[in-house]
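ok new one. same drill as before - structure tokens go in, u give me an amino acid for every spot. 106 of them this time. try not to just spam alanines like last time pls lmao
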């Protein structure tokens, strides 16, 4: 059967985060390293973090928060912040997360 993947497993390489960022703001991250090597993963996450800083997306997590699973709550909060930012980018016409007024519980 299919094995369930957790948030950390899906995002650890940084590839998906970089791809999502490029969907929201095309061309923001020019080089995405598609590899399982930790150094490449750290570079992808670092490039994603720089892109978040350029778009003033907060909170931003530290690389070990994702790579080592130290603070996945902050990772999830960052993804929600990116989703909120996507709503205000007029050039973005992709899917949006539903707006909820409930507190995210992790």
């Amino acid at each position: 059967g299919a094995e369930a993947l957790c948030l950390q497993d899906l995002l650890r390489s940084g590839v998906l985060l970089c791809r999502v960022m490029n969907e929201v703001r095309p061309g923001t991250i020019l080089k995405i390293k598609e590899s399982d090597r930790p150094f490449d993963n750290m570079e992808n996450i670092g490039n994603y973090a720089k892109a978040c800083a350029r778009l003033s997306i907060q909170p931003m997590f530290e690389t070990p928060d994702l790579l080592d699973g130290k603070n996945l709550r902050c990772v999830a909060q960052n993804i929600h912040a990116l989703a909120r930012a996507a709503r205000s980018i007029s050039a973005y016409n992709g899917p949006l997360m539903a707006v909820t007024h409930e507190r995210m519980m992790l």
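The first helix runs from residue 7 to 11. and btw The mean pLDDT is 88.
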